[in-house]
Amino acid sequence: MNYELALLLLTSSFVLRTSMYTLKKSLGQHFLKDENISKKIVSSLREIPFSQLLEVGPGGGALTKYLIQIPDIDFKAVEVDTEKTEYLLKHYPVLAGKIIEESILDLPKPFDKNFTVIGNFPYNISSQILFRILEWRENVDTVIGMFQKEVAERVAADPGGKDYGILSVLLGTFFKVEYLFEVSEQAFNPPPKVKSAVIRLTNLHDPWKVSDYPKLLRLVKAAFGQRRKQLRNPLKQMFTEETLRDPIFTKRAEQLAVKDYIELMQRMK
Predict the structure, then answer these.
(1) Is residue 11 part of a domain?
(2) Do 170 and 147 fall into the same domain?
(3) Each residue's pLDDT tens digit in the chain (269 positions)?
(4) 107: containing domain
(5) Among the listed residues 201, 200, 219, the one whose alpha carbon sits nearest the alpha carbon of residue 262
(6) pTM score, two decimals?
């Protein structure tokens, strides 16, 4: 190998290392590379007004580069991967002081006032992120999220089907759920083995007047814990014998709508 070729290879390797980043399978990283999809997600976000925005897992900045152009908002991003934080700060200096290096699952509420959440959520913790959103439900006005298609379908499912479950009920209690559009595997680097979909959650600001969320959570988890059985079996410890005679307890968990679960919660011991 001559000197010129060796120097060229060394220089190319250095440019690659300093301008790119490592994709980490352990963090479920599949970065969006389709610019049209990025713009479509941001457009879906901007249909609803907001003043404070949290991006979850900005990664290589596919959405971030558009989000930081939105005027008159307070923007923050939460990123657990130090390498990605360094990459973002190098390429988008305006992000200085706006990136929180932490997992969203450990993050305290990021704003004092109401805020909106957006992200190409890591698929390996996407359900946990939604439960985190539920913990912040009083302050989260809107969520725009990219999910594994299967998860998005579960969130948006109506009563009666196999996709209807715990997240369908809990998120449907507090949010209007919209299944916006699907995204091909080829829109990502590396391509995931599953299809993806974008959903939007818009806060209903508690029209059901849920006074005891932990109680509702316990009820719904117990009901779907034995979803093939009549409700009187998994729920028998939560209600009096007299209440359990109600015909509703002959149904299965997926047959009950949100209002049914709210009513049952109010009748629990």
Answers:
(1) no
(2) yes
(3) 443 433 333 333 333 333 455 654 444 456 899 999 999 999 999 999 999 999 999 999 999 999 999 999 999 999 999 999 999 999 999 999 999 999 999 999 999 999 999 999 988 899 999 999 999 999 999 999 999 999 999 999 999 999 999 999 999 999 999 999 999 999 998 888 889 999 999 999 988 989 899 999 999 999 999 999 999 999 999 999 999 999 999 999 999 999 999 999 999 99
(4) 25-203
(5) 219
(6) 0.88
